[in-house]
């Protein structure tokens, strides 16, 4: 029986391994999704998701997350939630609500506390220093404030044929308080239908929500395209369209998996991801935009991994 | 040259008349969109949008709005904004931001104040009374708290061929603080591409965001379907899908207009709307679900209008 997990960025890999162990033992796609995202949320050195994530312009760490079940289309989402250990778990709980399934700001945090989700000071000293240094740089060098928006986006398939999609992100570094990206938005940040497949996005949310690409990729898989064909045809034509009509396309990357465990990705920047299914153990790959609306996908090198490890743990002055 | 405006619910009619006057005189689709929505936001007897809108469970009036330009795909949105006279104008302003174009909660309100948008106590005494009575009813009769979610959704086309879509809503009556519906979500609440057409939704946001129907209707129009065919094929098949997979489909209605001023609607409840284009003056219609995925559309009767007028202005004890 088929199963699998695909997730954005190298940071998701440890979670993908755990998820696929669960799936191999007939665990549910919902549980596998949550375990993957929590693994990223909990790790202090990933600075764009959960604990250790970078804060907004006022130094407050606001987080977004979403959870969607592809059997029933039930979905839950939070945006601008603060000091809750696992936003993905709150989104999962909200997906069971018929009303009020998408909560933002203080309302989201209050809900999480009322429902007993673990509270945690999510801003680390390291993240606070990076924020403070960045503020100085912006003043001194007149840099653009906005940088970094690496959402963890995940799609899972279980042996029972159920699929789940979800996201978690601390959003754009130095964002305005209350800013929401694509991550908690259905169709833009994620979409899944267990009878077809699922997709999820990472990148500049402001541009991603102009295209509804996660929905479109699932729709193209419904028409019979492979996940890779669906990703290629959707992402690169939207990149071209946005360049023509809006002037410039921000960075974005999409992942997809269908209900047979086949997968695909497309991206207009250097993009890493982790994927494993019934046929292959989880592995990290690196993707780049190729010619003629194609994607170049290669196994990650040890050199890249070592440099990454060094970079994320480098001392902050 | 073609032009037109279509908008959800009878409440939009006065705004649609103003919009089409502007469009006839070569005004822009952006201005026509804003004028339509503001007309609804400003009117105290429409209890689901702007001034006079019904508050959340804590008695606070939180509003959502979005604005999208179909030439550039620029879009701006707010959710959970409070005590700002015209949320649609804030969303329009945000659509020009490259970053931070979707703001929620206090961040949205702070932005509006900083940018000089008019502040206003938006909760009317009438709305407060309706809220207070409802609280009593819920306690006494064990009623479901949630009722009423009539978003104003609008699509405009100008003589220059530009199109705009937008929404404004105070959301679900008695919602949890921070609840966001489909109205500010691209693809679910609205979508527009000037080279094709636009669409907008009203109804139970929690269910609408499971389907991305506004995006799907625009996509079907791109494939050559008329707005009516696109609405019929999209809405009723999603109604059936959601009934099968989720158990029940909430109430929802969609409007669409293509770039020739042709229009369509579909709905699974009794639904009124206003539309006018280069061929016909704005008029109010009433729509209902027909057989075999079709929509029955009839001119509104004077009797219906009189009863509506009486109902929205009835004294509140």
Automatic annotation (TrEMBL), chains A, B:
<feature type="active site" description="Nucleophile">
    <location>
        <position position="151"/>
    </location>
</feature>
<feature type="binding site">
    <location>
        <begin position="202"/>
        <end position="205"/>
    </location>
    <ligand>
        <name>substrate</name>
    </ligand>
</feature>
<feature type="site" description="Cleavage; by autolysis">
    <location>
        <begin position="150"/>
        <end position="151"/>
    </location>
</feature>
<feature type="binding site">
    <location>
        <begin position="179"/>
        <end position="182"/>
    </location>
    <ligand>
        <name>substrate</name>
    </ligand>
</feature>
<dbReference type="InterPro" id="IPR000246">
    <property type="entry name" value="Peptidase_T2"/>
</dbReference>
<dbReference type="GO" id="GO:0016811">
    <property type="term" value="F:hydrolase activity, acting on carbon-nitrogen (but not peptide) bonds, in linear amides"/>
</dbReference>
<dbReference type="InterPro" id="IPR029055">
    <property type="entry name" value="Ntn_hydrolases_N"/>
</dbReference>
<protein>
    <submittedName>
        <fullName>N(4)-(Beta-N-acetylglucosaminyl)-L-asparaginase</fullName>
    </submittedName>
</protein>
<dbReference type="GO" id="GO:0005737">
    <property type="term" value="C:cytoplasm"/>
</dbReference>
<dbReference type="Pfam" id="PF01112">
    <property type="entry name" value="Asparaginase_2"/>
</dbReference>
């Amino acid at each position: 029986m088929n199963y699998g997990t695909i997730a954005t960025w190298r940071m998701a890999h440890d979670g993908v391994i755990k998820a696929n162990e669960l799936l191999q033992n007939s665990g549910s796609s919902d549980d596998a999704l949550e375990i993957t995202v929590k693994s990223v949320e909990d790790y202090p050195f990933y600075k764009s998701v959960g604990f250790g994530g970078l804060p907004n312009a006022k130094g407050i760490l606001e987080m977004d997350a979403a959870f969607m079940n592809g059997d029933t289309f039930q979905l839950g989402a939070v945006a601008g939630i603060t000091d809750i250990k696992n936003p993905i778990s709150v989104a999962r709980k909200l997906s069971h609500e018929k009303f009020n399934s998408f909560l933002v700001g203080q309302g989201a945090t209050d809900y999480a506390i009322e429902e007993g989700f673990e509270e945690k000071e999510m801003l680390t000293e390291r993240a606070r220093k990076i924020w403070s240094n960045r503020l100085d740089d912006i003043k001194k060098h007149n840099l653009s404030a906005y940088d970094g928006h690496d959402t963890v986006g995940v799609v899972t398939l279980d042996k029972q044929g159920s699929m789940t999609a979800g996201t978690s992100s601390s959003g754009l570094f130095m964002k305005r308080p209350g800013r929401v990206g694509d991550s908690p938005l259905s169709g833009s940040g994620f979409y899944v239908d267990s009878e077809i497949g699922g997709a999820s996005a990472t990148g500049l949310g402001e541009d991603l929500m102009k295209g509804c690409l996660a929905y479109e990729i699932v729709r193209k898989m419904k028409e019979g395209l492979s996940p890779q064909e669906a990703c290629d045809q959707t992402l690169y034509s939207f990149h071209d369209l946005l360049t023509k009509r809006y002037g410039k396309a921000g960075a974005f990357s999409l992942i997809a998996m269908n209900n047979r465990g086949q997968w695909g990705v497309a991206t207009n920047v250097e993009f890493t991801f982790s994927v494993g299914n019934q046929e292959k153990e989880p592995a990290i790959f690196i993707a780049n935009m190729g010619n003629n609306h194609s994607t170049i996908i290669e196994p990650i090198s040890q050199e890249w991994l070592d440099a990454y490890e060094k970079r994320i743990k480098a001392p902050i002055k």
